[in-house]
Amino acid sequence: LGDGYVNLANSLLATCHPDTRVRVLNTGISGNRVIDLEARWRDDVLARQPDWLSIMIGINDVWRQFDNVTDTNVVDITRFEKVYRQLLSTTRPNLKGLVLMTPFYLETNPADPMRAQMDAYGAVVKQLASEFDAVFVDVQAAFDAYLEKRPTQTLCADRVHPNQTGHLIIAKAFFNAIGGKW
After folding, report:
1. Banded pLDDT at 86 (limits 50, 70, 90)
2. Strands (DSSP E) along the chain, which ranges?
3. pLDDT score at 144
4. Can you tell me the distance from the alpha carbon of 107 to that of 13, in angstroms, rounded to the nearest whole number?
5. Is pLDDT at 28 greater than 90 in this prediction?
6. Residue 56's beta-bridge partner residues?
7. What does 105-152 look like in DSSP terms, one character per residue?
8. Residue 99: CB partners within 8 Å, gap ≥ 6?
9. What is the enclosing helix (H) or strand (E) of 1?
10. b/e for 89-123, b at 16 or more Cβ within 10 A?
């Protein structure tokens, strides 16, 4: 399950609901964009026939536009939404439940160019969650609440890769959002 939020969310589920058996798989790959997810969707999602599916994608779709300006395979917001929508369209009818989580950027200034772009991608995720009857997890809002009290440096150095506290914030937001829905 890795060392991040998926492992922590799994522990929260087991701790708070010991009477419910849930098998959690983590097929996320660090650094992936939605087009990478699309390339492995059949093997990593469809072949596993999950009852519930949780997706957090978009961080690298935005980040690569800022840290690798020579990238010729940019995933702009239109492409992001199109690919994401196609994945959900083919998968949602076979699921009992779906959880969509926003991408995030650990920056408190909403006018920061990367933060503004991340918020736009997050708005796409929120819209898709509504369209596909998914549980919506606003990860950015969870981080924003924390960052009202503490500086970004308490979570990470690069504003993208959170430490264990950051992963716990994500896991808690996930757990709170799914509530008793699963």
Report:
1. very high
2. 52-56, 97-101, 135-137
3. 98
4. 29
5. yes
6. 101
7. ---S-TTSHHHHHHHHHHHHHHHHHHHTT-EEE-HHHHHHHHHTTS-G
8. 52, 53, 54, 55, 134, 135, 137, 174, 177, 178
9. none
10. eebbeebebbbbbbbbbbbeeeeeebbebbbebbe
Contacts 24+ apart (CB under 8 A), 150-157: 152/106, 152/107, 152/108, 155/106, 156/106
CA atoms within 13 A on the CB side of 57: 27
Two tokens, residue 119: 């918020």
| Tokens describing residue 85 | 């929508």
Yes or no: say if 122 and 138 are a contact pair by the CB < 8 Å rule.
yes
Length of the chain (residues): 182
CB 52 within 8 A of CB 137: no
C-alpha 107/C-alpha 124 separation (Å) is 19
Q: Does this model's pTM top 0.90?
A: yes
Other Cβ atoms less than 10 A from the Cβ of 17: the count is 13
